[in-house]
Design a protein that fits this description.
The complex is a heterodimer of chains A (141) and B (336). Chain A has 141 residues and is mainly α. Chain A has one domain (5-130). Chain A has helices at 5-17, 26-72, 87-111, 114-130; one strand at 138-139. Classes of the chains: A mainly alpha (141), B alpha+beta (336). Strand 1 (138-139) of chain A pairs parallel with strand 6 (113-114) of chain B.
Chain lengths: 141, 336
């Protein structure tokens, strides 16, 4: 997924480092500060849960690829793996696994393999939940 | 040369009179255009105006001429700002821009807040869906927009829209997205019924894209940059997408129960709502959203990580739409 946590945190610094011209002070700057604050709060969630979420997603995708390997001629063992829990390392593996999952799902749909189609849809729901970011209840005005 | 000086030079030339720019101030939000409020003083008279200028990188690649012509088409039919001037080549401002009249005294809700309309949610909802119905009721052939927007065939609206946004994902994706890819395939496998009529689609009609007076009245519909001709259910589905629900599952757009919203729209537009078609356009809405957020993530990176609005769009909203898409795909199969 992009942007990454380092992207967000570096971006928070960069967007505040340059104060901009006079017409971008006042209300505009206040709005920018609010968005940066919100990004920082969401970044805290990602720092806490992001690595575990990626490791869990990678394991779940690999399991579904392994299960389907015989029927669909997949060599799941050829997809890279890692013990490195850094987000960048996990994302690199995740990209390869997601590409393989897309290929498997297309093949499953073409074959009308309903059981695996449903299993993949359930996996998508789990993947989305693992990556969830929780917005705090911000009051309207 | 400052932006104020550039504006003065431009307006003095086109109005053929000395113009002074006062109170120039950028308005927060919106990543597809830089938006500024200012007053142009000429012949002793101050005109409150809004400048919409293309940024170096934008959330969505849009044609500012279409937005300008959309305002020209609708400012006398629904609450919308009157357009004043447009320069596709940028002229003195160096980047394409247009100027419109400023609507005073309104506020726009943030889509990420809870219950932003408070006790006026019902009244605002009635206005919101009635205005959208009025836009859908207009015969495009009678509008200036007809001269610049292509009209798809009734049975081709879905394909044109889906090809466009799927192409955006193809072009801008930086990390594989299996959920939205599955949704795109599902949409292609089972197209919707032909549009009842080809009408004007605002393109980004949602909570947060209008000004209201804080007492239940909508003052101006904004952000017409994605306007086009197509199936008007595209706008309905986008307006009621769960992303824009203000975390209230019992209402759409944080305003009204779904059944009430659709009835209001149908009365105002004179068009029926086919639930099968709306289900297709609802899944499409989440695909379109994911395409916009995919572009936002790319622009955030390409622009050196300096626009936090692009960061929120490319990150938080992208993940919300993955949740929405995954749930919709499950529902299609009767799994939830």
């Amino acid at each position: 997924m992009t942007p990454s946590l380092p992207d967000i945190l570096v971006g928070n610094f960069l967007c505040m480092a340059d104060p901009g011209p006079p017409e971008q002070q006042g209300e505009f700057m206040a709005g920018k500060v609010g968005v940066v604050a919100l990004l920082s709060l969401l970044a805290a969630q990602e720092a806490e849960r992001g690595a575990a979420a990626r490791a869990a997603e990678n394991a779940a995708i690999r399991a579904i690829l392994d299960e389907a390997a015989g029927d669909y001629g997949i060599s799941a063992g050829d997809i890279p793996s890692t013990d490195d829990m850094a987000l960048a390392a996990l994302d690199l593996v995740n990209a390869a696994l997601r590409r393989a999952l897309i290929g498997l799902h297309e093949a499953v749909e073409a074959r009308g393999d309903t059981a695996r189609h449903h299993a993949i849809l359930r996996l998508y729901a789990r993947m989305a939940d693992l990556r969830r970011l929780d917005m705090p209840p911000l009051p309207g005005r | 040369m400052s932006l104020a000086e550039r504006l003065e030079a431009y307006l003095s030339r086109v109005w053929d009179a000395p113009v002074t720019v006062a109170d120039l101030s950028r308005i927060p939000g919106g990543a597809s255009r830089e938006t500024y409020r200012f007053s142009a003083v000429a012949n002793g008279e101050a005109r409150p105006l809004i400048l919409r200028r293309d940024p170096p990188g934008s959330l969505i690649e849009t044609d500012r001429n279409l937005e300008y012509v959309a305002l020209a088409s609708f400012h006398d039919k629904v609450p919308a700002p009157r357009p004043v001037a447009m320069e596709a080549e940028g002229a003195e401002l160096e980047r394409p821009f247009f100027i419109m009249e400023r609507v005073e005294g309104g506020v726009a809700a943030s889509p990420f807040t809870v219950a932003p309309y408070g006790e006026h949610a019902q009244a605002i909802g009635e206005g919101f869906f009635s205005i959208l119905g009025t836009i859908a009721a207009a015969d495009p052939a009678t509008l200036p927009l007809a001269k610049v927007a292509e009209a798809p065939a009734r049975d081709d609206c879905w394909r044109v829209a889906l090809d466009h946004w799927a192409g955006v994902i193809d072009a801008d994706e930086q990390h594989p997205q299996p959920i939205v890819r599955a949704a795109i395939r599902a949409l292609r496998r089972k197209p919707p019924p032909a549009a009842t009529a080809v009408r004007v689609v605002h393109g980004d009609y949602r909570t947060g894209n209008f000004l209201h007076d804080g007492a239940g009245k909508i003052l101006a519909v904004l952000d017409w940059e994605m306007v086009h001709l197509g199936d008007p259910l595209e706008d309905v589905a986008w307006a009621i997408d769960p992303l824009w629900g203000h975390f209230d599952a019992g209402k759409v757009a944080g305003m009204l129960p779904r059944v009430d919203a659709l009835a209001i729209w149908s009365r105002a537009s004179g068009l029926p709502i086919d639930e099968t078609a709306l289900a297709w356009w609802s899944l499409f809405a989440a695909v379109k959203g994911q395409a916009i957020w995919t572009s936002a993530a790319k622009e955030y990176r390409d622009g050196g990580f300096k626009d936090p609005v692009l960061a929120i769009s490319g990150w938080y909203t992208a993940r919300r739409h993955d949740e929405i898409l995954a749930a919709a795909l499950m529902r299609l199969e009767g799994l939830s």
